[in-house]
Amino acid sequence: MKDQSSSNNKPLYRIPDLFAGLTNLVSGESTRHGGVSSEPYSSLNLGGSTLDNPENVAENNRRFFAALDIDLSQVAKSHQVHGCEILVVTEPGRFEGYDALITNIPDIQLAVTVADCTPILIFDPVKKAVAAIHAGWRGTVAHIVQKTVKLLGETYGSDPSDCHAFVGTCIDECSFEVGEEVAENFQSVYKRWDEQKNKFFVDLKAANRDQLIEAGVNPDYIEVSPYSTVIHNGDYFSYRKEKGLTGRLLATIGIKG
Asked: CATH number for the domain including 235?
């Protein structure tokens, strides 16, 4: 991933290597740097569902999207509910109840917010369609990634083998400690039992990467973020590590007109 620095030389956002250099595509994953919010939301909190000052959140969003040369009027977001509903976006705006967004309309910038859950960005360079997905453990179990790839095909004629996908920064396997009631929803390959802690650990990145492959995406066209919201908490917000008092990261993708 390629760093795009803020004024203090810390990364404002990072671009997946898979998407870097594509002149007709705008993509990025925010960090926590370069914003105006104070603790515990310092500093680039992009989530409106927090108790942060709304004016600060608005300014943070303006700064982030301006760095991508995107006006806020182009952005499509949804209030996410940890479900598996997918919206076919035909105009920018704020929506309710969707955890994945797809479009093939130029100059609509899709965005999802996270603070430990997994963001997934998909680009079909043939049909010129994009998707932005928010996959927490519930969305992962509900196969929201596979459902999104399927809907891209049904809606725009996308062939999964043409699609390029980025599995973004989220909580890492060694930090995602869960009880049996969560672990029982995952196949054994995605969970590990820790005898000392008497808990399971779940790998969301691997689970969502494999869903992309099962949906027909070429493994060579999949990039997985090397970063963790917990291990690299200096650069990213983590709901779990910061005990709920933290900001939100944002992953975005869109096609230039």
From this structure: 3.60.140.10
